[in-house]
Design goal:
The complex is a heterodimer of chains A (about 350) and B (about 375). Helix content of chain A is about 35%, strand content about 25%. Chain A has helices at about 5-20, 40-50, 55-60, 90-105, 125-145, 200-205, 225-235, 250-260, 275-285, 305-315; strands at about 65-70, 70-80, 85, 90, 110-120, 145-155, 165-175, 190, 240-245, 265, 295-300, 325-330, 335-340, 345. Chain A has a seven-stranded mixed β-sheet. Chain A is globular, with a radius of gyration of 21 Å. Chain B is α/β, with parallel strands linked by helices and about 375 residues long. Chain B has 15 helices and 13 strands. Chain B has helices at about 10-25, 35-45, 70-80, 105-110, 120-130, 145-160, 175-180, 195-200, 210-215, 225-240, 260-270, 300, 320-325, 345-350, 355-370; strands at about 30-35, 55-65, 85-90, 115, 135-140, 165-170, 190-195, 215-220, 245, 270, 275, 280-285, 290. In chain B, the strands form four sheets. Chain B has a five-stranded parallel β-sheet with strand order 2-1-7-8-9. Chain B has a four-stranded parallel β-sheet with strand order 4-3-5-6, sandwiched between helices. A two-stranded antiparallel ribbon of chain B has the order 10-13. Classes of the chains: A alpha+beta (about 350), B alpha/beta (about 375). The interface of A and B includes residues 6, 38, 278, 331 and 339 of A.
């Protein structure tokens, strides 16, 4: 067999192996299973999806979509274990509301109501609890959702780090939305709703492990106004939205390139990053495209509606720096390429392991 | 960012790329090795290789400190981490490197107290904050990181911190380069010399490469323009039939190195007779251990470690990949027994290793070459 033929055969073997459904074979749960990368994927697709078997879950969207007697609903849940509990720009309570609201918003659903369940550690100062309850109430009011159910548990000292928060949320699917992760077509534009990397960098600095004096605040906010503006401006030309949380913008782009079987090209120079975030990331040796956000969405829009969608996005408070950062291409399928600000191109891969656990 | 953006200027980059294109002889294939993992990282991050003519190939060298740690050393580290009362500290990317029975990350999940630190001083700080626990630092890296380990050990010694010790896996850069150059089937035309290592050891230790092996070396910085500039300088040497050690990174690297750092290393460390490298086997006088004066801080003497050598599988051909003799896909275990999820050799362990990069992006690279 010729050398080229052999190489081709080996590339085929690799592709077949990658296309196989991920399996969950690990002996124990490690921190990697919580990091959102390959290990998490193996656990979800190898253990949870086959066990529960519902088509709404198997779609692996940010929220499950349900039709109940003609009503189109979206339902989602999220747990929050961030440390420290309070950080510049937000706190665990605010994250817990916005995180669930945003999962509904990017699924094209207007958030309606949340449930709240708290796991509190014995000895938690009442003032800390009161502060989080206030933060939750304020964030819910700002996002226009009601808290309609809840539960509380207390565990012995040492069994929870102050508090853990879980929220579940229900929303009504917006009639303007026709979103699907498989809907991306060559030529579609990639829009980003604002500057990236603030949440992850703020948490990193708040932990005090690095002695950097930078002032960086988390970007936690409700993304419903941004989603609403995009739906209004682009309607069915809006192909898909995702909030770029754990794993950052890079992970969202990789997931959707695979889901749609298309190539994505992003231009690094077009990606808005605050100078303080860029500086901190430079010093820590991390790429802001992989850093978590709590108030940034990525939207894919058909070319004819892209300008209007971007203008609409920029008119939303907190999204003034929204930008078009790249486009969808036919090739290479399933891959994300970045044109670096230096001029070269590189492949931007899925995150293998998150160096920073418990960020949300 | 001032003093950084200047070295990432796309226009200057294009200008140097044009000069490089003019400097290559048509029909000649150039294989240049960047020795240092930091250079590999910059090349990927900025897409530097994308700006090069197709007949200038960059070969990723053995300078990724995490990837070269053999399985037996990881096993020894895990054995110490499992000892009751031990807090085992290491750099984050070391935690995922597999030993023969799993990684430190898996040992942590099974109950060992393994913690990620950003510097050896953090490990010493943990030791002082937990006087009732034994705190061990798993030290890795070339001459770049060895001085900070040395200074930490000096401080622990001076302050009499009794519950701190170090499992030393520091290595030196010259012996593996010599091992590569000694191989009769080497196919490299020149070397991009390691910038960070050279800030410590200086440029002098690399003079054997042109003197004994007739290959040019250019020590380079880590910004994309630095790397392109160094490639330009290497091609100029090759075109003029010269070979010498040149220093592109003069703003940081002094010819003589950093004497104080070298003194601290000489006091704290001594050469091991030989040290095993993942994928490259045993290399004489390539590893460091603690000197007798610091024996009481040596984790390998404080704890019973198995010290069992776990052989790299025979089929692993990392050595040949590193030498540029074969392409990753020509290795017998590539893509079958050796994958990024279950790596065997050094080239697959790190995502920037030649084999891991080819596994993930091989089809894309080939399509690009076809354009």
């Amino acid at each position: 067999m010729s050398a080229t033929g052999r190489e081709e055969r080996i590339l085929d073997i690799i592709e077949t192996a990658r296309a196989k459904r991920p399996r969950f074979r690990d002996e124990r749960v490690t921190m990697a299973h919580g990091a959102g990368g390959k290990a998490t994927q193996g656990m979800i697709e190898g253990l949870f999806v086959p066990a529960f078997g519902s088509p709404a879950l198997a779609a692996l969207g940010d929220a499950g979509l349900l039709a109940v007697d003609g009503a189109e609903l979206a339902f989602t849940t999220d747990a929050f274990v961030v440390t420290p509990l309070r950080f510049p720009g937000g706190s665990i309570g605010e994250l817990a509301v916005n995180g669930t609201v945003n999962d509904l918003a990017v699924a094209g659903a207007r958030p309606l109501a949340l449930s709240l369940s708290l796991i509190l550690e014995e000895g938690l100062p009442s003032d800390a609890l009161r502060a989080e309850v206030d933060a939750i109430a304020r964030a819910a009011k700002a996002a226009g959702v009601e808290l309609v159910a809840g539960d509380t548990k207390v565990v012995e000292r040492g069994h929870a780090d102050g508090m853990y928060v879980t929220t579940a949320g229900i929303g009504r699917r917006d009639p303007r939305s026709a979103l699907s992760p498989g809907a991306l077509r060559p030529g579609d534009r990639i829009l980003l709703s604002g500057t990236i990397g603030e949440h992850g960098t703020a948490i990193m600095l708040a932990r005090g492990e690095f002695e950097l004096g930078a002032e960086i605040a988390s970007d936690t906010r409700s993304l419903w106004p941004a989603a609403d503006a995009l739906l209004e401006a682009a309607g069915p030309a809006l192909r898909c939205m995702r909030d770029a949380t754990r794993g950052g913008v890079a992970s969202v782009l990789n997931e959707l390139a695979r889901a749609s079987g298309v190539g994505l090209l992003a231009r690094e120079a077009a990606v808005p990053v605050q100078p303080a975030v860029a500086g901190a990331c430079e010093l820590l040796g991390i790429d802001p495209l992989y850093v978590a956000n709590e108030g940034v969405l990525v939207a894919f829009v058909a070319p004819q509606a892209a300008d209007a969608a971007l203008a609409a996005l920029r008119s939303v408070a907190g999204c003034e720096q929204a930008a078009a950062i790249g486009e969808v291409r036919a090739e290479p399928p399933g891959m994300v390429l970045v044109e670096t600000s230096f001029g070269g191109r590189r492949v931007m891969d899925q995150l293998v392991g998150d160096p920073l656990p418990r960020i949300c | 960012m001032r003093f950084v953006d200047e070295f990432r200027d796309a226009e200057l980059g294009r200008a140097v790329a044009t000069e490089i294109l003019a400097a290559v002889e048509p029909g000649r294939h150039y294989k240049l090795m960047e020795v240092c993992g930091g250079h590999t990282h910059s090349i990927y991050k900025y897409g530097v290789d994308d700006l090069l003519p197709r007949n200038v190939e960059l070969v990723h060298g053995p300078g990724c400190p995490v990837c070269v740690i053999p399985m037996g050393r990881v096993d020894d580290g895990i054995a110490i981490a499992r000892e009751p009362g031990v807090i085992f500290t290491c750099f984050g990317d070391m935690m995922r490197v597999p030993g023969s029975e799993g990684s430190l990350l898996e040992a942590k999940a099974a109950g060992a107290d393994v913690r990620m630190v950003y510097s050896p001083l953090d490990a010493l700080r943990i030791a002082k904050a937990n006087p009732e626990r034994e705190v061990v630092f798993f030290a890795i890296g070339f001459e770049t990181t060895a001085p900070s380990t040395a200074l930490t050990l000096k401080r622990a010694h001076a302050e009499g911190v009794r519950n701190f010790s170090c499992m030393c896996n520091h290595v030196t850069i010259v012996p593996p380069l010599r091992a590569l150059l000694d191989s009769p089937d080497l196919r490299l035309d020149g070397f991009i010399g390691p910038g960070h290592v050279s800030t410590v050891v200086g440029a002098r230790p690399f003079q054997f490469i042109p003197a004994d092996y007739g290959k040019p070396v250019v020590i380079a910085g880590f910004e994309p323009l630095d790397i392109l500039h160094a490639i330009r300088m290497l091609l100029a040497q090759l075109a003029e039939g010269r070979c010498a050690v040149e220093n592109q990174y003069t703003r940081v690297v002094p010819w003589e190195g950093n004497l104080r750092a070298l003194e601290a290393m000489a006091e704290v460390f001594e050469l091991r007779p030989h040290f095993e490298w993942r994928g490259l086997g045993f290399i004489s006088q390539s590893g460091l251990r603690l000197s007798d004066a610091y024996a009481d801080l040596d984790a390998e003497r404080r704890f019973a470690v198995p010290g069992v050598r776990v052989a790299d599988p025979k089929a692993c051909q990392c050595g040949e990949v590193l030498k540029g003799v074969i392409k990753p896909w020509e290795c017998k275990v590539f893509g079958t027994a050796c994958t990024p999820e279950r790596p065997i050799g050094t080239c697959m362990v790190s995502s920037e290793g030649a084999c891991a990069a080819y596994y993930n992006f091989g089809r894309f690279q080939r399509e690009r070459e076809a354009v």
